[in-house]
Amino acid sequence: MGSELQSWGRYPHITEQRERSVTWASDSLPVPADGGSLLPYGQGRSYGDSCLNAGGTLLTTARLDRFLAFDPATGVVRCESGVTLDAILRLVTWQGWFLPVTPGTKFVSVGGAIANDVHGKNHHQAGSFGRHVPRFELVRSDGSRRVCSPTENPDWYAATIGGLGLTGLITWADIQLRRMSNPYILQETIPFNELDGFLSLARESEKDFDFTVAWVDSLGRGKSLGRGLFYRGNHAPPQFDALPLARSHLSKRGGGLAVPFDMPGFALNRLSVAAFNWLYYHRQRGRASEGLIHYDPFFYPLDGVHRWNRIYGRRGFLQFQCVVPFTDAGVAATRDILDRSARSGMPSFLTVLKVFGDVPSPGWMSFPRRGLTLALDFANKGERTYTLLAELERVTRDAGGRLYPAKDSRMSAENFAAWYPERERFAQYVDPAFSSSFWRRVNGAG
Ligand SMILES: Cc1cc2nc3c(=O)[nH]c(=O)nc-3n(C[C@H](O)[C@H](O)[C@H](O)COP(=O)(O)OP(=O)(O)OC[C@H]3O[C@@H](n4cnc5c(N)ncnc54)[C@H](O)[C@@H]3O)c2cc1C
User: 8: Cβ below 6 Å to ligand 1?
Assistant: First the structure.
């Protein structure tokens, strides 16, 4: 036992797990040791326990990192499942292609992006990542291999996209990239004073802006509850010839800042969170601004500081991400969650709000659906934090929303069953040798 692998939130902290590296896509899967189970592990960028397997074996995919084909005419790239989005960007951006959908970090694997059917700032236009994966191969513990697409093995396709790594190991995938006119984004940053301000900006931006997201001041209360900065943008038109600049930017990659050790738990307290949020909100001085920004800081502002999760100290942190309907009840629930977090005495360090569109997700277990999605990060203060999260979970449920498994380590089995009604059909496709700490927990066995 004794794998060092953890999830991004470093909660729960699991030591009793083995690691086994998968090197070749043609390898057959190992037999799980001691009656334990297998679970693929990409880059460990999931926050909770969906990429962990206490008592079992993690099949690490970092060595499945080969590109198999790329057609610059059609923009279809075929790669092994351990290839990261970062590696894809390095291959394709200078040829005028971009990822169809990207989460807020590029350090995730293709297998992980499919298994969580991740979403990005363009969900309202492009839907989730799985929609842009026309084909992949799935290997099962019985040695069977299936090519899955919307027409070949369509059930396996729908079970595996958003299937939390439980249906088998994805060995390779095709991704349909999107044309990019320019690696720079024309971005507008617009302050809003309260939640209603966000809602009108979100509504007015849906049609004309490919990318939208808002940062929310976690400490805003009363009249300022839900205030923040709204970001919206599109790839700049080709006449903004910034490609040489983009190349020099890419050549500097890897040289970013890093948090070298675990910060002491007290470094992130109410005062430091308040100071950060106040400074961040006021950096716009109440004015909207517009500018050209490279895609890297636009999509991946947190990637600039490697291992930033260490600022939360050894106990780690928990993320809470819900989606609630875009209705009066959903808006009221969003307000309630922000208010409870601000009043809790342990406010969220980073709070992000976005609107999901109504483009359907291809996976039975995919998280995104039309609504408001709010993500908050909480330092792990033990029971106090878990109690707050249970309250936020209840507010989400009462409003007809649900939580995102990729970010979760606390949701109850009862809520999971109610929120993911396809789980019974899905369970028939789970590989009998595969399991995860998350799966056992939400099935009342963890
Ligand atoms: C800073 C930051 C920002 C983020 N922003 C977003 C965001 O905007 N939107 C969003 O949706 N998510 C976001 N995430 C979450 C992240 O995108 C997902 O958790 C993603 O799935 C992680 O990919 P990974 O390669 O690290 O996979 P892991 O976390 O290692 O694994 C995730 C799941 O994929 C499965 N898996 C991995 N590889 C395979 C494979 N080859 N075959 C089958 N199953 C596999 C695992 O078993 C596990 O269930 C963010 C995370 C961070 C740290």
Answer: yes
> Which tokens sit at 431?
């590989």
Ligand 1 midpoint to CA 163 (Å): 11
CB of 38 within 6 A of ligand 1: the answer is: no
Ligand 1 centre to CA of 352 (Å) is 18
Burial code (b: 16+ CB inside 10 Å, e: under 16) for 85-99 equals bbbbbebbbeebbbb
CATH number, position 338: 3.30.70.2520
Can you give the residue range of the structural domain that contains 275?
184-410
Ligand 1 centroid from CA 112, angstroms: 4
Cβ(164)–Cβ(112) below 8 Å: no
Asked whether residue 316 is domain-assigned, the answer is yes
Q: Is 248 exposed, middle or buried (0-12, 13-18, 19+ CB in 10 A)?
A: exposed
- In the chain, the number of structural domains is 1
Q: What is the DSSP letter of 224?
A: G
Question: What residue's CA is closest to ligand 1, atom 39?
Answer: 111
Q: Please, what sign has the CA dihedral across residues 214, 398, 438, 153?
A: negative
Do the domain assignments include residue 194? Answer: yes
Reported as a single tens digit per residue, the pLDDT across 113-137 is 999 999 999 999 999 999 999 999 9
Residue among 11, 45, 122 to mutate when testing ligand 1 (max atoms within 8 A of CB): 45
pLDDT recorded at residue 338: 97
Q: What per-residue confidence (pLDDT) applies to 304?
A: 85
Q: Which residues of the chain have pLDDT under 50?
A: 245-255
393's enclosing H/E stretch is helix 383-398
Which pLDDT value is given to residue 442?
A: 98
Q: Considering the domain boundaries, does residue 347 fall inside one? A: yes
Ligand 1 neighbourhood includes 51 CB (under 6 angstroms):
yes
